[in-house]
Design brief:
425 residues; six-stranded antiparallel beta barrel; 23% helix
């Protein structure tokens, strides 16, 4: 027992000295510096917001129609004795040109008979005038002071005058029927359809063909209320010399070639179509077969055209990608230096697949609008902004608080733009 006790004391002494030295060394050694590294933010794509003017353009389709088009029909009956060589499909006609002539023999005889009736009535009236003068003289010679109208032959005179007027009316009617044996073109234009030939018997009102004027063609363009607002047009609008309608560019393929014609909106309908709830806007093109043609190609009736109408302009509005406008009136903006998300309420003006136009007192041009989808985004959310550059590359913005000593790391990484994903929420 006496031999074991010194050994135990020695071991305990060694353990006490070793443990104390360990704790002393651990207390005196420098502690390692602890750096709290923030978690990496969600990587999102962004594009800069710019300020620009918003020019509205409304695109719609319609069919070309002549402003004036009529059916050629005689007002009297008769056999056709002449048809103009221009009165054929596609023929060019001039105002006042004779298109069709009917046989006039019967109507010429009617004029002769009417003239003879006029001559007889004039003779009768002259005789009644002479007899009335004689009757008045006889009454004076007899000393009759208050003779009756019949004694003065006044009723006979009135009857003769009425007969003369009737004969003249019959003559005018016969001459009018004779003039109507020729059917004239009321305007300069083209023949859409001619369906008559010499020897054919025509009845009053029978269709002999169809013609249209070539001075103006028009296109009826149905628009909704929003599109009317973009054009700045009210119901029942009518163009005047001081108030011109918006310009319209018509486009169609003719003969395998893309053609364009320039016209204007001249009026709008005064009522809304009860079936479609749309408003008809009428655009016109003057002289479609002449100066209004595109390199000789006319905007002919029946052609189906695309119409682009230039609307009103809104100056100095902010523009961002369409995907940056969320929930109708919010824009997500990335703060590249802070690495945070900011959410702004804006006043939307217009949006298309090409972009969103809005107004805001807080958003400024140059801010980066986020286009990537973000689930449950909130103001101050940690993000890493990947900016799409004009040359197609991607610029990565590293936030300040993710660099050593709090220094801002310049955007140093670029990647092809094809890495971008998502256009909106």
């Amino acid at each position: 027992m006496n031999r074991i006790l010194p050994i135990i004391v020695t071991v305990l002494t060694i353990l006490i000295i070793g443990g104390g030295g360990f704790f002393i060394l651990n207390a005196l050694s420098p502690k390692p510096e602890q750096v709290e590294e923030p978690p990496a933010g969600l990587s999102v794509f962004a594009e800069p917001i710019v300020r620009d003017n918003l020019q509205f353009n409304v695109n719609v389709q319609g069919e070309v129609k002549p402003q004036r088009e009529i059916i050629v029909a005689p007002q009297i009956a008769g056999r056709i004795s002449y048809v103009s060589p221009d009165f054929i499909d596609g023929g060019i006609i001039q105002r006042g040109q004779v298109l069709v002539r009917l046989e006039a023999d019967d109507y010429e005889l009617g004029v002769v008979r009417a003239r003879s009736l006029v001559a007889s009535a004039e003779q009768r009236l002259a005789r009644e005038k002479a007899e009335a003068e004689i009757a008045v003289q006889d009454l004076i010679d007899l000393g009759i002071d208050n003779p009756s109208p019949l004694a003065r032959r006044e009723p006979q005179m009135a009857d003769a005058e009425a007969a003369l007027e009737s004969a003249k009316a019959q003559l005018a009617e016969a001459e009018l029927a004779l003039r109507r044996t020729a059917v004239f073109a009321p305007f300069t234009g083209r023949v859409r359809e001619g369906s008559v030939d010499i020897g054919q018997f025509a009845s009053p009102g029978q269709s002999l063909g169809q013609i249209f004027a070539t001075d103006i063609v028009e296109v009826i363009l149905p628009l909704n209320d929003d599109e009317m607002g973009q054009l700045g047009l009210p119901l029942a609008f009518a163009e005047t010399t001081s108030l011109k309608g918006p310009e319209v560019i018509f486009a169609a393929k003719v003969g395998g070639v893309d053609r364009e014609w320039r016209g204007r909106v001249t009026r709008t309908a005064a009522a809304i179509n009860p079936r479609t709830r749309l408003i008809n806007v009428i655009a016109e093109l003057p002289d479609p077969f002449g100066e209004g043609a595109d390199d000789g190609a006319p905007m002919a009736p029946g052609l189906f055209v695309e119409a682009s109408i230039q609307g009103r302009m809104i100056e100095s509005v902010l523009v961002s990608p369409r995907g940056a406008l969320r929930s109708g009136s919010r824009v997500y903006v990335g703060e590249p230096e802070e690495g945070t998300l900011r959410i702004f309420e804006v006043e939307p003006v217009h949006s298309t697949p090409d972009g969103a136009w809005f107004r805001s007192d807080e958003v400024e041009p140059g801010m980066l609008a986020i286009t990537s989808p973000i689930q449950a985004g909130f103001d101050g959310m940690s993000i890493t902004v990947l900016e799409k550059m004009p040359d197609g590359t991607i610029k990565t913005h590293t936030p300040k608080n993710s660099t050593e000593d709090g220094a801002l790391a310049d955007a140093s990484e670029t990647e092809p733009a094809s890495l971008a994903t998502g256009e909106g929420e």
